[in-house]
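Support request from a user on the community tier.

User writes: "When I paste my structure tokens into the form, the page sometimes reloads and wipes my input. The last time it worked, I copied everything first. Here is what I submitted, just in case something in the input itself triggers the reload:"
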């Protein structure tokens, strides 16, 4: 299905290999309880998840800073559910969320099986927009760090996916041509359109149950990679 031999596979991390929503929910369960913030976790998460995606889009587009992202996504969530939480408490929660998030290490089903399957025949890498200080902790905590030769992070690259430069930097570090590279990720905008614009082959992991599209092949479970590669 791919024109050209694939030698290198680049994965997104959050929402693709590392189960962000599950690990995030466990982190919020911990810090809300410890800080005695009396809101139903289910109600909080139902409101927070789309707000978080909205603010990450603003962050990718350089419309807000990292600190604004961390504070405002919580502030907007508490306001939306009419929970009276002070700004100082939100600051504390924002800090503790980052501190504890990487201590949870759930992966999507079949992640290890697929990485074991791919490793003998492909060079594997990560391209992530996540915060540099916790992405390595996530990889090590979930025991998948050793699978990847290069980990390209938006903070060290200076730009975020879908900017072409971060994909070009990844190709340069891996010493591979775009037509021999495959990007696998959950974000249509950041991963699929971004990598495709530079010439990568692309595969969409539909973690968010989005509508079908014609940009590339779509998979709903990582195990499907074994029937493609």
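"...and here is what came back when it finally went through:"
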């Amino acid at each position: 299905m791919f024109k050209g031999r694939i030698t290198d596979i680049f994965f997104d991390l959050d929402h693709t290999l590392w189960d962000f929503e599950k690990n995030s929910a466990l982190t919020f369960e911990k810090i809300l309880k410890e800080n005695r913030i009396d809101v139903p976790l289910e109600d909080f998460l139902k409101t927070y998840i789309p707000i978080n995606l909205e603010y990450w889009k603003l962050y990718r587009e350089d419309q807000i800073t990292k600190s604004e992202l961390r504070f405002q996504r919580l502030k907007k969530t508490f306001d939306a559910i009419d929970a009276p939480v002070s700004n100082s408490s939100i600051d504390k929660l924002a800090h503790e969320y980052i501190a504890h998030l990487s201590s949870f290490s759930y992966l999507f089903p079949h992640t290890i099986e697929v990485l074991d399957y791919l490793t003998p025949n492909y060079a594997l890498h990560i391209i992530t927009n996540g915060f540099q200080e916790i992405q390595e902790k996530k990889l090590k905590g979930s025991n998948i760090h050793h699978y990847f030769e290069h980990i390209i992070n938006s903070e060290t690259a200076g730009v975020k996916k879908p900017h072409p430069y971060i994909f070009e930097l990844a190709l340069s570090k891996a010493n591979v041509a775009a037509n021999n590279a495959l990007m696998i990720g959950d974000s249509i905008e950041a991963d699929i359109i971004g990598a495709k614009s530079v010439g990568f082959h692309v595969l969409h992991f539909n973690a968010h149950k989005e509508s079908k599209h014609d940009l590339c092949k779509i998979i709903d479970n990582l195990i499907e990679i074994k029937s493609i590669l």
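Agent notes: The reload is a front-end session timeout and is unrelated to the input. Strands lie at 8-11, 123-128, 150-153, 181-185, 201-205, 217-219. The chain has ten helices and six strands. Escalated to web team.
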